From TrEMBL:
Residues 978-999 are annotated as: Disordered. Belongs to the DNA2/NAM7 helicase family. SDE3 subfamily. InterPro entries: DNA2/NAM7-like_C, DNA2/NAM7_AAA_11, MOV-10-like_beta-barrel, MOV-10/SDE3_DEXXQ/H-box, P-loop_NTPase, SF1_C_Upf1. This is RNA helicase. It comes from Wolfiporia cocos (strain MD-104) (Brown rot fungus). One of its GO terms (biological process) is regulatory ncRNA-mediated gene silencing. Keywords: ATP-binding, Cytoplasm, Helicase, Hydrolase, Nucleotide-binding, RNA-binding, RNA-mediated gene silencing. Pfam families: AAA_11 (PF13086), AAA_12 (PF13087), MOV-10_beta-barrel (PF21634). CDD domains: DEXXQc_Helz-like (cd18038), SF1_C_Upf1 (cd18808).
Length: 999
């Protein structure tokens, strides 16, 4: 393909003679498209892009407020957007403006191919960029393909049964093969045309096609005697398959060769099953409501639980500073992060600036959280009154999308009213699909059960305010925030002298014994101690034993044990129950319903006389030897007046899943210079959930645990037993399941110590490809979909394959498996919902959830559905297409949950673009665990950890597109007498030439 000349593209001509002579192009000015031959140009004129442009559907508008050009199709979204509204507010003008005709901005050109404004001084550079060349390439390829698809020279290629789609073929029928016939007919009586070739085009991965074509017995095309060409599809696995057939013809009279192409496809599976899971409605991105400020809010009535805890210290409001909000309203993530760094963040983070640094990151995160909540706003929603409560049905409430707790606030306004007056409803009741709100008494006069209400969810800022409160304290010792070698008093490994071990299993585990001894023998005021616990190595067991040993040797010790989630805190409590309700107290936030508390933990809680969860008086609270809470809820101790330094030890289990401000809630409000801190977790597994990309960029996603382990004095080998202990005995998984993550993340130090009756229990299972290797990679070519307004992806092909595996496992009478033994992990919420729907009739109790929901858990069988399956190779964006799946920590957690059997269902063409996944797929394939479509790469080749495999595939796709366009161009030029070519040099002469009337 010829190179695009910048001058030609911008002006329509070229001043360089040598260059001009090489141009054989037509330029479509309305579309800004370059076509390299007349045939391609004519095809473009018939194409959808040109027709849409001429019809005004690709028109460019100009926004006089933002002073930018906008494609007409995106005008409404632009006008409704926050950036436009903010710009209008700053100018003091009405944001509702009519679009103007496309304006050429000062000192800029508008590139029609890319739909962007380009400064004049960068125009030449833009025309040479890869992105621009790709846009031009797409146009050329699409035009060439449109041309190739056309019936031509009187030859009509069709399908006798209405298209080249085999439709749905059952797996049992697809294995022996199914046939269809393609009709090739000559419709011109005297034309002499031969079919000289018919073949399947090669795929990017160069693997064998499941489609085969049987050429006709004779090549000649006789008028009205169609040739019937047999197409056969044969495959053994569920999925979606497609290909392209190229028919090559030769016109004897013209001495010309030409090509006609047809797509061919087939779906292997049951049509009824697919239909039951198909998208309910086409995907249309959910439009955000225009959230003008609520200027007139009628306060609601808080629930009684709001005052259940007798706080004596008030929380600060800690509202987002205007300069931070302003910095986050414009530009890219990188630009916003740079602006925050330059204007707000302290240049150096030390003990003096630590609190300010993390407060800024919290505000950045809050800004995004508020923005995300807008997606759940409801318009014209009905309210149902029962007693003093007004009940609102909230879509997605059962899946915590959005999460609503007692005490949260929801604003409502009668639909159609724009007077700025809103009623604040406090959440008093949370049920499965609805919440009960309590408004001001005046709402009863306004309420109309036959009217709809606009609903806005408001962010509960209490957890954020608790973190700001902690960060604002003056307790900021270096030995906790920035420990160095000199903070360790003697730097000598403590002697393991433990006279009595409660959990006898630990005795045979030297790293656990060392961790416990080191923690027990720590001097008051030591730097934090880290229990580095890879998957299944017994972190929580070590924490529990350490707590009990401290209490055994020091009756005056007081311990605060925290975890990021209620479930993790409940686990700590349940394993310390032997202490009894007089020594152990579990604090729950009052917003939690007492009905949600596990029965065996109720004796360790405290309730007010009217039944709300709370805490006992300070004098009673101080008598407990161990208090357990979530990290953020631990602020209650400071709030009710527990003196600083009361707790000698603070334990944080699963510390890698908490942000640093969450950990600091307890440390900076309640610790003193003698308090010892113990962190337990794994920085190689999932970190905290941070919604803001800007906050992640600035460091909020890096946990306190991970930051500690990045410091030289926490290197596991050099500082073993002094500041850190790495647990290495894995009690969960079969060695083959453990091996890959061990070598990739844990230096190959993990030792498989799981019970053989568990980890070997499924060797020989019929679902295994290699009966001695308990991992299966089921390679499937599916299709990822979205539906209605949900941006979450699902893949029906993978859903049904997961269902097939669950059915096979549950029906096996030799290897008996219960629902509770199986876990299904999927990275997208929509996929989890589809899998639950599919399993409802066969295994309703199988746990299906995200990677986050499975961290810390295990199952005998884990099935992972990776979901994403894309064929848009040239537009391929690895970050967006693989998304969560390409996150190394998410990968590590997912593949280390299984005890005896791990099954991955996914598209290897997509997964292999990520070096980590490619290495894992090679590991499975080379150990005989592969089934389904064969890999499209050499699994014995060394994986380059820094390779851009997605870029390689993109370049291969571009090469194929170039090759196809070039072949079509060459066929169009074949037989053309260059002596008859028109000299277009004297363009002005056309002024005097008459126009021909062709009709």
């Amino acid at each position: 393909m010829a190179i695009v000349c910048a001058e030609l593209l911008s002006t329509g001509s070229c001043s360089k003679p040598a260059c001009t002579s090489n141009h054989d192009v037509q330029i479509c000015r309305p579309c800004g498209v370059v076509c390299y031959t007349t045939h391609v140009y004519q095809a473009h004129l018939r194409g959808a892009r040109h027709i849409n442009t001429i019809a005004g559907r690709s028109k460019i508008y100009h926004c006089p407020i933002c002073v930018i050009n906008i494609p007409a199709t995106g005008w409404q979204e632009h006008v409704a957007g926050k950036r436009h509204r903010s710009a209008a507010k700053a100018l003091g003008v009405n944001p509702e403006v009519d679009p103007e005709e496309q304006a050429m901005l000062p000192d800029q050109n508008f590139c029609n191919a890319c739909s962007i404004n380009v400064p004049l001084n960068k125009w030449e550079f833009h025309l040479r960029t890869r992105a621009h060349a790709k846009k031009v390439l797409f146009t050329t390829f699409e035009a060439a393909f449109d041309e190739a698809e056309r019936n031509k020279h009187g030859v009509v290629v069709s399908h006798a049964e209405g298209g080249l789609d085999f439709g749905f073929v059952e797996v049992d029928n697809a294995q022996p093969g199914v046939q269809a016939y393609i009709s090739v007919e000559n419709t011109v009586p005297l034309a002499r045309i031969n079919l000289v070739g018919v073949k399947m085009a090669t795929t990017l991965r160069r693997r064998a096609s499941p489609f085969t074509i049987t050429p006709p017995a004779h090549p000649g095309l006789v008028h009205k005697r169609p040739l019937m060409i047999q197409a056969t599809f044969r495959h053994s696995f569920r999925g979606r398959y497609q290909g392209r057939i190229e028919f090559t013809f030769f016109d004897i009279a013209l001495g010309r060769t030409f090509i006609i192409v047809r797509d061919i496809k087939c779906t292997v599976g049951n049509q009824d099953e697919y239909n039951s899971l198909a998208p309910k409605a086409p995907y249309v991105p959910r439009k955000r409501t225009d959230r003008t400020a609520e200027t007139n809010v009628v306060p609601g009535i808080p629930p009684p639980a709001s005052n259940a805890v007798p706080y004596v210290v008030k929380l600060p409001h800690a509202n987002i500073p205007t300069r931070i909000s302003a910095a986050l309203m414009q530009g890219s993530v990188t630009r916003q992060a740079d602006q925050i760094r330059a204007s707000v963040l302290p240049p150096i983070v030390n003990n003096g600036t630590h609190g300010r640094f993390y407060s800024v990151l919290l505000w950045v995160e809050e800004f995004r959280m508020e923005h995300d909540l807008e997606m759940y706003d409801i318009t014209n929603a009905p309210l149902r009154k029962y007693g003093r409560y007004y009940y609102l049905e909230v879509p997605g409430l059962a899946e915590k999308r959005p999460s609503v707790l007692v005490g949260d606030r929801i604003f409502v306004q009668r639909s159609g009213e724009n007077n700025g007056r809103w009623y604040e409803g406090h959440v008093h009741v949370v049920r499965k699909v609805e919440v009960g709100l309590c408004f001001h008494d005046s709402f009863s006069t306004e309420f109309n059960a036959n009217r709809g209400y606009d609903v806005r969810f408001k962010l509960n800022r209490i957890p954020l305010r608790r973190q700001h409160q902690a960060l604002g304290t003056v307790f900021d010792p270096d030995r906790i925030l920035f420990p160095q070698e000199q903070h360790f008093i003697d730097g000598v490994l403590p002697i393991r002298v433990l006279n009595a071990i409660y959990n006898k299993v630990i005795i045979g585990n030297p790293p656990q014994m060392q961790a416990i001894a080191s923690i027990v023998q720590q001097q008051p005021g030591s730097p934090p101690f880290v229990i580095f616990g890879p998957p299944g190595t017994g972190k929580t067991i070590t924490v529990i034993e350490s707590i009990r040993q401290i209490l055994r040797v020091n009756a005056n010790a007081r311990i605060l044990a925290c975890a990021p989630s209620n479930s993790a805190a409940d686990l700590i409590t349940s394993r310390l129950k032997m202490l009894g309700p007089q020594k152990l107290f579990r604090f729950y936030a009052p917003s939690r319903s007492p009905d949600d508390i596990l029965d065996d933990l109720c004796p360790f809680t405290h309730k007010t006389p009217d039944g709300h969860l709370s805490c006992p008086p300070v004098a009673t609270l101080k008598r407990y030897q161990v208090v357990v809470s979530t990290c953020v809820s631990a602020s209650f101790l400071y709030g009710v007046g527990i003196p600083r330094g009361h707790y000698t030890h603070m334990f944080f289990d699963e510390a890698g899943q908490a942000t640093e401000p969450e950990i600091m809630v307890a440390i900076r409000t309640t610790a003193d210079n003698k308090t010892n801190v113990v962190l337990s977790g794994d920085p190689k597994q999932l970190g905290p959930i941070v919604r803001s990309a800007v906050a992640r960029t600035l460091g909020l996603e890096k946990s306190y645990l991970e930051r500690m382990m990045d410091r030289p004095c926490y290197e596991p080998h050099a500082w073993h037993g002094i500041s850190v202990v790495k647990l290495i005995q894995n009690f969960r998984s079969h060695p083959a399941i453990l091996r890959f993550s061990d070598e990739r993340f844990y230096e190959g130090e993990l030792q498989a110590r799981g019970s053989s009756s568990v980890i070997n229990s499924l060797l020989g299972s019929p679902v295994l490809v290699n009966k001695k290797f308990p991992i299966v990679m089921h390679a499937i070519s599916g299709k990822d979909d979205r539906e209605a307004s949900s941006p979450s992806f699902f893949n029906i092909d993978e859903v049904l394959q997961v269902k097939s595996y669950v059915q096979a496992l549950r029906s096996d009478r030799r290897f008996r498996i219960t629902d509770a033994d199986i876990g299904v992990i999927a990275p997208y919420h929509a996929q989890c919902l589809k899998i639950r729907t599919a399993l409802r009739s066969v295994a309703d109790s199988v746990k299906v959830g995200s990677v986050e929901e499975f961290q810390g858990q295990e199952r005998r069988v884990i099935i992972i559905s990776t979901v994403r399956s894309s064929r848009e190779y040239v537009e391929y964006d690895l970050r967006h297409t693989l998304g969560f799946v390409a996150n190394p920590r998410r990968f590590n957690v997912a593949v280390t949950r299984a005890q005896a059997l791990l099954i991955i269902v996914g598209d290897p063409d997509v997964l292999s673009l990520d070096p980590l996944w490619r290495s894992f797929l090679n590991y499975v394939h080379n150990n005989g665990g592969w089934t389904g479509n064969e890999p499209g790469w050499d699994t014995d080749a060394q994986v380059d950890e820094h390779a851009a495999y997605d870029q390689e595939l993109r370049e291969l796709a571009i090469s194929d597109m170039n090759d196809f366009a070039r072949r079509m161009e060459q066929l169009a030029l074949d037989g053309v007498d260059s002596a008859n070519a028109v000299d277009e040099g004297d363009n002005d002469a056309n002024v005097d030439r008459p126009w021909r009337e062709v009709e």
